[in-house]
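Hey, I was hoping to borrow your eyes for a little while. I'm sending you its amino acid sequence along with the C-alpha cells. Take your time with it, there's no hurry, and the full record follows here.
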Amino acid sequence: MRTPHPIAAHSHSPPNPYEDLAALDDGPLEDFLQVEEPAVTEGAEQEAEWAPPNHRRGSRDRRDLGPRRRPRRRRRSPFTGLSLAVKAVIAVLVLAAFLALGDRWALLYAERTAAEKVRDQLKLSASPEVEIDGFPFVTQILDQRLDSVSVTVPDVAADRVSLAKVSATATGVRVDGGPTSLRGVRIPELNGEVLLSFDDLNRELGASQMTFTGHGRDEVRARGVLPVAGHDLRMRADARIKRDGERGISTEVGGMRLDIGDLATFRPGTRESQGLHLTRKSATRLAKEKAKAKELLSVPSIAKRIGVPDSAVKEALSDDSKFEEFTGSPRFAGQLMKVNLIDLAVQNPELLKRLGFDLALLDGLSRLTRPALVDRLSIGFRLPKPPKGELSLRDVRVQKDGIRVRVTGQGLAIGK
C-alpha cells in the first residue's frame, strides 16, 4: 500500500493528477518506452540494405530470385469480338477476291493463246494485242460465247508498204474449248479500221527524200527530191486514192513532174504536153539572148517545130531588127516552150549542151518512164484473204495522219 504524500496529508486538499504523473517519471513507463539497440557484430562495416516488404503469398525474397520476368500476354485475334455475320461477310469477300484473281488469270491466258493463233494464221511478224471484254470471263467461256473481242495488229506488211495499225472489234464470238484449252473461235461479225500512216510512206517510199501529205478527202500529194544522173530534181505528184476490189486500195497518180531548177520541167509520158520543156522564164530569157536564139532558128527542124516559116526565119537571121521583133513577141516564147528537148537532144545534142543542158541528165530522163515513176509513188495495198469468211474494205478516206479505211468481216474463223 502506497504511503500518501505528506503535503496532501496535512493540507487535506484534493489530489493533483499532474503530481501523480510526475511521480511516474522514474517508474515502469520509462522502462517500457526504452528501446534496446540491436547488437552489432564485430567487424561489420555497414548496415544491411533496406528492402521493401514482399506481400505476395508464397514468394521468396526478390534479392534471392534475381530479376523478375514480365509475364507474356496472349495476342488478341483481330476477329475477336466480331459478330458471326461480320465474319461471314469477310469470308465471302476473301472468296470473291480469289475467284476474281482466278478469272483474270484465265482471261490473260486466253488472250495470249488467241494472239498466238492470230499471228500464226495470218503469218504476222509479231503477236497482236487481244483484249476480251466482259466480266466475269469464266462464265462466258463456259457458255462458249464472248460478248466482245478487240484485236490490234501493229505494223502489218501489205505489198510494198506497211500498215501502221489494223484494229478490229468482233462481237458474238463463238469459242471452241475451255479457259485453258482454247482451240479456235468463230467470228460472225467484225468491224475495224486500217491506218496507212504518212510517216510510214515517207520512210518506205520516199527514202527520206519524199514527203506525203493529205489533200482533201481522197488525194495525197507527194513532194520531194529525186536524184537523176547526179542531179537532184524537185519532184511533185498527186495521187488519188480509191478502193480496188473488196480487199485493197490503189492510187491513180497524176500531175507528175520534175523541175530542173528554173530551166526546164520534165513530165514523163508520150503525149505532146509530156517530155522535157523549157519553163516560161527560161524561154523568155533565151529569146533575149541573141546568139543562142539564132542557133535555135538556124536548125530547120527546130524552126519547123515552133511553127516558123522558112521565109520568116531567113528574114530574121539576116536583119537584126526583124530578129528582135520576131523573138521579142510573146508568141515566140510560147512556141519555144512546146519544143520537147528530149527529141531535140537526139538530133542536136551539141546544141542543147551549148544551151546549158547536161547530156547525161537528158539521157537519164529519157530512161525515166512514167510506169517507173508511178511505181515509186504507188501506195496501194491489199489485205490477205482469210482462210474462211469474208474480209472487205469500205469508206476510204484521207486524213491528216494518213489513209484510213474501214474494215468489215463476216463468218470468219481462227484456229480449228
In short: The longest strand covers residues 161-178. Residues 269-367 form one domain.
